[in-house]
Amino acid sequence: MTISTVPEQLGMRSPSGVVAPGMHKDVIASGGTTRTLLAAESGAVCLFDSAAGITYTLPTPVVGMHFDFFWKTQRTSSSHKIITSDATVFMVGSVMAGDATIATSGDVFEADGTTIVAVTIDGDTKGGFIGGRCTLVALSATQWAIHGILIGTGTMATPFTTT
After folding, report:
1. CA-to-CA distance for 123 and 134, rounded, in angstroms?
2. Model's pTM, two decimal places?
3. Triad 133, 136, 140: Cα angle to 5°
């Protein structure tokens, strides 16, 4: 008996699992220190899976394109970063950030949509702990909407940067 390694459609059972058409997300491991995402990868889950700095560069935005980012490994050296593809493509929205051990430490940081081109995570006051996440959705050819929750330590600071 041959067992297929291709996931079955919803309602079918197989050793490789069940995938609902349109619901399955590809998972992208960083593969090193830098990774430029492709438009065809829209909808993927992108992992910060190394303690060393990782930079993900977003593709040129097309309305509706989206990426989810998750911190799987705590950052300990260099910065984790998500940057836009161009200095004229900006982020708009907000992230909530808090200290992992202080229940009342949460704060909200906003990206203004006209100057912010990156999220820079330092592993301390700007997030980078396991369990943090953010989502970016293309609103136009020049804006990515961002929302998320970052986990860090100490007095939290904005992770948004103009470079």
Report:
1. 15
2. 0.84
3. 170
